[in-house]
Amino acid sequence: MIRAFKNTLISWFDGFFAKNTDSIVAADFTMFFILVLLSFITYFIARRVLLSLIHQLTKKSKTNWDDKLADRKFFKILSYLVPAYIIYVFTPVSLESYPDIAGGIRIVLTIYMIAVVVMAANAFLNAVVDIYHDFTIAKHKPIKGYVQVAKILVYIIGIITIIANLFGQNPLTIIGGLGAFSAVLLLIFKDPILGFVAGIQLSAYNMLQPGDWISMPKFDTDGTVIDVSLTTVKVQNWDKTISTIPTYSLISDSYKNWRGMEESGGRRIKRAINLDMKSVKFCTPEMLEKFRKFEYVKKYIHEKEAELSNYNEAHKVDNSVLVNGRRQTNLGVFRAYLRGYLNNHPDVHDEMTFLVRQLQPSEKGIPMEIYVFSRIQEWAKYENLQADIFDHILAVIPEFDLRVYQNPTGDDLQKIGLPNLPK
């Protein structure tokens, strides 16, 4: 049909040109012009009609994968193939008398269509990531690194195919020739290769996920992971700055992941208060009578006194001397008070490690350490809870005839009569 139409054009142009060869040239280029015009008409139809129809269908469908493809302009990119393909197919017929020109146009169109296919593949892979993010598993197994590797492969194949078309070679021949440059390729793609391997390890062993809180002092990083890609991991620090860490560094260097704390349901409180050892003493009957009024140690004192009395009686201890036998101390009662206070605190976890202990005494006194877990994990509320607990502890210490150890200040020096230091 096309050849018949072309012969009709040649016959028509014979009426204008004296030579038949001129009529053939005019018919060839007229055919090519009509072909280009037809390709743009089909592109307009595909873009305005078919593409609009596809978008309407995707909106009405119950699935969301087609919506993701439409959002990433996958169908729009594919529509760019329509005019190029029409010109590519019919150019040899329209420019039959100029095979070299037709061949050049076909090479250009081939490169154009390969580029469009690469763009469409890129859009498709982006849509795959978007679709995957809708699944719960995406929070634990990110695939962005794998998708980026797939993109690199698509780009490499696209570039090799374009080069092969430009030089008229088989793409497999070019791929085989790249073996000689493998060392150079490994050097060029060192970071992506290391990042890909690291990404597989991070995912396989569930070492890192978006949303994890990590601390990595080497990179001055302390915050939440917001993105895990092929070569880098982005972390938003608590001061709202963004740190970019090479993915491979999370395998080769150490870092702390706080996810275990968040999943455990508790957050550790570990802090000590130094007490003056000179204020530690045996409890007198008057002191015990006072302590019995404290709600959290009332039962403890009663039971402990009964235990100590039975022990001293069984061993016939001379109670006229305090160092004989076993006695309660204000420090021991204070430790019991802290246990009772924390056990009854609604925001202290009673099913996790719970310790109120003395640490090694030093020149700064005897440290009394609180080692418990808070039910509250949110940073600001956790800090408020911790502050409230130690506000209370500091306030009740004098009630047990104990003193907090503190280095002397300028005011203390003035109270004992030392002269003011020169300014």
Structure description:
This protein has 423 residues and is α+β, with helices and mostly antiparallel strands. The protein has helices at 2-14, 20-60, 65-71, 74-79, 81-94, 99-133, 144-167, 171-177, 182-188, 190-204, 249-252, 259-264, 285-291, 298-314, 330-343, 379-396, 410-415; strands at 213-216, 221-228, 232-237, 242-246, 256-257, 267-275, 348-349, 355-358, 366-374. The model has no long low-confidence stretch (mean pLDDT 82).
What brief labels describe this structure?
423 residues, alpha+beta, Alpha-Beta Plaits, 4-stranded antiparallel β-sheet
Task: Give a quick precis of the structure.
The chain has about 425 residues and is α+β, with helices and mostly antiparallel strands. About 55% of the residues lie in helices and about 10% in strands. The protein has three domains: about 1-200, no CATH class; about 210-265, SH3 type barrels (Roll), CATH 2.30.30.60; about 265-410, 2-Layer Sandwich (Alpha-Beta Plaits), CATH 3.30.70.100.
Runs with pLDDT <50, length 5+? Answer: none
The proportion of strand residues reads 5-15%
Task: Classify the helix fraction into a percent range.
Answer: 55-70%
SSE arrangement, N to C = HHHHHHHHHHEEEEHEHEHHHEEEHH
Oligomer: single chain
Report the average pLDDT across residues: 82
